[in-house]
Specification:
globular; 4-stranded antiparallel sheet; single chain
């Protein structure tokens, strides 16, 4: 499966951006989709995840209440709505996928840059 992110760019402090991740090559009905981010000089950080079937969602503590992960089954696409952005959230955001029975994410997108200006 190929994951293609889009929607990154420049945002303002307190503003919003929406990221998209299109899954190409197969349907992901038994999979978990995740968003991660990595800022320069920092480790990769979990942002959010969603089970394609059932829609259960999970969030990192730093984004709870501000970010929302969702899916569009018809488009085989997962979204990350980011509100109340902070400058420290400037990073490359990656989409990832794993089968629901596994722990590690097997597939990763190329990443999309998000820059939040102060």
């Amino acid at each position: 499966v190929q994951l293609v992110e889009s929607g990154g760019g420049l945002g303002q402090t307190g503003g919003s951006l929406r990221l998209s991740c299109a899954a190409i090559g197969r349907t992901l009905s038994s999979w978990v989709m995740g968003w991660f981010r990595q800022a320069p000089g920092k480790e990769r950080e979990f942002v959010a995840a969603i089970r394609w079937t059932g829609g259960s969602t999970y969030y990192g503590d730093s984004v709870k209440g501000r970010f929302t992960i969702s899916t569009d089954n018809a488009k085989n696409t997962v979204y990350l709505q980011m509100n109340s952005l902070k400058p420290e959230e400037t990073a490359i955001y990656y989409c990832a996928a794993r089968h629901s029975t596994l722990v590690d994410y097997d597939y990763w997108g190329q990443g999309t840059q998000v820059t939040v200006s102060s």
